[in-house]
Every structure is written in C-alpha cells, then in structure tokens.
C-alpha cells in the first residue's frame, strides 16, 4: 500500500482539458475558441515587435543569470507601479503601496490569498457569478470559504447591478471581494464608471476587503481607461489588493509575469505587509524568474519601445472589436438577429448565451471548441475561420 494510493484522480481542468480534446481532434477545419489567448490574423500567437526588440537588446547584453530579490526586479516593480497607479501618484510618493513581482496574474492572486488567509483565516471570499474558473479553486485551496455575488443577468444580457449591490451590502465586514478591474472574464460585461463609484462606496461603508484582478488592461477601452478603477479605489482611501498580469498585454503567457500590489493607509503598514508577502514568496518559490520582468521593464521605460507597445496593444484591441462586429454581421446574414450584444462586450471573451447542448454540438458537429458555459474567445477568431464559426453557431441555433 503506497501513500499515493490515497491520491484520487482529479478531473481535468475544464479549459486545459478542452485544449487536449481540441489537439486530439483530427478535423483540419477545427477552431479553438476555448482558451484565453489572443491570436493574430495568421491564427498564431504574436510576438510583439516591442517585446522582440527588448529581447534582442537583453540578449546582446549577455548578462549573467543571478537570482532576483524575493520581491522581484526593482526596475520592473517601478515601471508597473507607474503603469497601474500613474508615475506621479501621491500614494506611491507616500510609500503606501507594497508591490511584488509575481508568477503571472495567478501567482499574484495566490500570494495575495495566502497573505489574507494568514491575517484572517475565517473570512469569506466573494467572487462574481460567473467568474474566471480558477478564482474559486484558488481561494478555496488557499483555505477560504468561497461564495458568489450576483453579476451576470442572462435575461438582460448584462450585469445584474441591483443584485450585485444587494449582495455586497449583505456581506459581513471583513469579507474579501474579488472584482474584475476590466474586461470581465467570462462575460465581457464591465461596470460603468458611475457603477464603480457605487461599488467602491459600498465596499468602504461595509468594511469589505477589495481584491481587484486586472488581467486585461488595455483590451477594453485603453490602458488608462481600463485602469481608471484603480484610481477610484485609491481615492476612496480604503485598503485594497490588486493583481495584474502581463500575459495578455505583452503576449508573454509562458514567461509568467505579473504583479501584486497592496495599497494601505500608511508607509508603516506597507512595510509590514511587504515583509509578510516576502515570507510567502520565499517559502513557496524563493524568488521569481528574470526574463519576463526584464522584458516588461525594458518596454515600459524606453520611450520608443513603449510607444510601439501602446500602438500594438491598441491594434489588438481594435482588431478584437472588428472581429466581434464581423461575427455579429455574419450571424445576422444567416438570420441570427439577436446576438448583436457580442459587439458591445469588452475584452477577449464573449458570453454567447448558447446553452451547454449547443456548445457540445458546436464541438462534435462543427469542430468549434468553446466552453460549456457558452464562453468563446473572440480573440482567437480571424478572417480565415470567422465564416465557419458564424455558420456553425447559426446551425446549432436553428
Ligand atoms: N485573472 C483573470 C480574470 C484571468 O482571466 C486570468 C487569465 N486567464 C488570470 C487572472 C491569470 O493570468 P495569468 O495567465 O497571467 O496567470
């Protein structure tokens, strides 16, 4: 009898499991709209020109591969803090923000969750209904009880704002509330700035603990526009956590690069919190990897590379908008008139409103892979596959 006989076979990750099924599908016309990855017109993952140039410069320097500090590369932290909070932000000058480099957005969420669990193991975590699949699993695994606040209204094809406010008002003080800063995954529906004002006020009044997750800055309306909610939280004066990911906005998925910031009331709190974050990191993976941080820092601090990056990211954003519109037009041309909402959604995903049965039929009959929830990654569409996808959706709808 081995100890490991106790290990049960866990179900495959719903998204990565879908990719395995996609890879095993022999039909050449197959389309994978399951994963959250931006693909170019050629159907391939882009290497952004700014990132390529930054990498060439780094390779030319041929630096030795030392360890980074526990909290990561100082130049990276400095650059992303400027991106997130604004270089002139008073909160940075006041040293009220503790920031660490993280292993992507997921790593930031986990380090933040571990810190929170250490400080208040009894707290409940609220995530949106629905949310990115890993939110529930990650906070559960960190030891929390995880519940959901109302978010998506399938009838209205939008946000159940009254339900959301009601659920936040009913939460116990100290409840941790995970919020998508922009480009909500999976629905594609974001709160308006006026709605954010109300949410920020309720969180503050109720003494809740906001944890903003920003994995898609730049994919909604623009870098500054998508980050606007961060300034609202800072202005409210409440403590909050913020995870960011550069997987999508720099197309650096495999480099595992992100950040976690905790915004606090005083420099002293920030110092204490940073010291705790460092212990969490030290006892998990000691210190983060170098390349992703060096690439992001180089791009953000070099004026030419930064301008090029902003243009490229803007190009990705507007291309996704066009793809959405072409899909809506393609569906309308096939008699599906009630899916125009896809054009107004933000970010990489579309909650299509298709049922599980329809999503299964898309896969089995048409080799078009999306999630059972109806989520499709519109950022994986291109002019070569759009017609097929529109035709397949129209077919399963009829
Ligand atoms: N949060 C959300 C809402 C996401 O969609 C994702 C990525 N799919 C992440 C966090 C994790 O980002 P990363 O891949 O950088 O770990």
Automatic annotation (TrEMBL):
<dbReference type="InterPro" id="IPR004838">
    <property type="entry name" value="NHTrfase_class1_PyrdxlP-BS"/>
</dbReference>
<keyword id="KW-0663">Pyridoxal phosphate</keyword>
<protein>
    <recommendedName>
        <fullName>Aminotransferase</fullName>
        <ecNumber>2.6.1.-</ecNumber>
    </recommendedName>
</protein>
<dbReference type="GO" id="GO:0005829">
    <property type="term" value="C:cytosol"/>
</dbReference>
<dbReference type="GO" id="GO:0033585">
    <property type="term" value="P:L-phenylalanine biosynthetic process from chorismate via phenylpyruvate"/>
</dbReference>
<dbReference type="GO" id="GO:0004838">
    <property type="term" value="F:L-tyrosine-2-oxoglutarate transaminase activity"/>
</dbReference>
<keyword id="KW-0032">Aminotransferase</keyword>
<dbReference type="InterPro" id="IPR004839">
    <property type="entry name" value="Aminotransferase_I/II_large"/>
</dbReference>
<feature type="domain" description="Aminotransferase class I/classII large">
    <location>
        <begin position="29"/>
        <end position="393"/>
    </location>
</feature>
<dbReference type="InterPro" id="IPR000796">
    <property type="entry name" value="Asp_trans"/>
</dbReference>
<comment type="subunit">
    <text>Homodimer.</text>
</comment>
<dbReference type="InterPro" id="IPR015422">
    <property type="entry name" value="PyrdxlP-dep_Trfase_small"/>
</dbReference>
<dbReference type="GO" id="GO:0030170">
    <property type="term" value="F:pyridoxal phosphate binding"/>
</dbReference>
<comment type="similarity">
    <text>Belongs to the class-I pyridoxal-phosphate-dependent aminotransferase family.</text>
</comment>
<dbReference type="InterPro" id="IPR015424">
    <property type="entry name" value="PyrdxlP-dep_Trfase"/>
</dbReference>
<dbReference type="GO" id="GO:0042802">
    <property type="term" value="F:identical protein binding"/>
</dbReference>
<dbReference type="Pfam" id="PF00155">
    <property type="entry name" value="Aminotran_1_2"/>
</dbReference>
<dbReference type="InterPro" id="IPR015421">
    <property type="entry name" value="PyrdxlP-dep_Trfase_major"/>
</dbReference>
<keyword id="KW-0808">Transferase</keyword>
């Amino acid at each position: 009898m081995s100890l490991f006989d106790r290990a049960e076979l866990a179900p495959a990750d719903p998204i990565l499991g879908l990719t395995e099924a996609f890879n095993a599908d022999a039909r050449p016309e197959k389309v994978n709209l399951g994963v959250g990855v931006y693909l170019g017109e050629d159907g391939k993952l882009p290497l952004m020109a700014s990132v390529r140039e930054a990498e060439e410069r780094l390779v030319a320097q041929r630096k030795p591969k030392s360890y980074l500090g526990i909290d990561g590369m100082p130049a990276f932290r400095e650059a992303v803090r400027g991106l997130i909070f604004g270089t002139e932000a008073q909160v940075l000058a006041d040293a009220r923000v503790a920031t660490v480099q993280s292993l992507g957005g997921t790593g930031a969420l986990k380090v933040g969750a571990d810190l929170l669990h250490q400080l208040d193991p009894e707290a409940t975590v609220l995530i949106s209904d629905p949310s990115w699949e890993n939110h529930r699993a990650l906070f559960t695994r960190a030891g929390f009880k995880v519940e959901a606040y109302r978010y998506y209204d399938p009838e209205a094809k939008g946000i159940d704002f009254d339900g959301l406010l009601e659920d936040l008002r009913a939460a116990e003080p100290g409840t941790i509330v995970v919020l998508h800063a922009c480009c909500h995954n999976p629905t594609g529906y974001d709160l308006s700035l006026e709605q954010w004002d109300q949410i920020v006020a309720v969180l503050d009044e109720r003494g809740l603990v906001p944890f903003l997750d920003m994995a898609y800055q730049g994919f909604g309306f623009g870098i500054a526009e998508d980050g606007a909610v961060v300034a609202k939280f800072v202005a409210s004066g409440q403590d909050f956590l913020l995870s960011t990911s550069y997987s999508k906005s720099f197309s650096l998925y495999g480099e595992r690069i992100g950040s976690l910031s905790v915004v606090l009331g005083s420099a002293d709190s920030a110092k204490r919190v940073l010291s705790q974050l460092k212990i969490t990191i030290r006892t998990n993976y000691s210190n983060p990897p170098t390349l992703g941080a060096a690439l992001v820092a180089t791009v953000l601090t070099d004026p030419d590379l930064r301008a090029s990056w902003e243009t490229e990211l803007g190009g990705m954003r507007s291309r996704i908008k066009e793809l959405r519109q072409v899909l809506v037009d393609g569906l309308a041309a096939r008699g599906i008139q009630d899916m125009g909402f896809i054009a107004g959604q933000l970010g990489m995903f579309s909650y299509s409103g298709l049922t599980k049965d329809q999503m299964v039929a898309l896969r089995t009959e048409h080799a078009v892979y999306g999630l059972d929830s109806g989520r499709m990654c519109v950022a994986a569409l291109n002019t070569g596959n759009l017609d097929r996808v529109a035709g397949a959706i129209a077919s399963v709808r009829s």
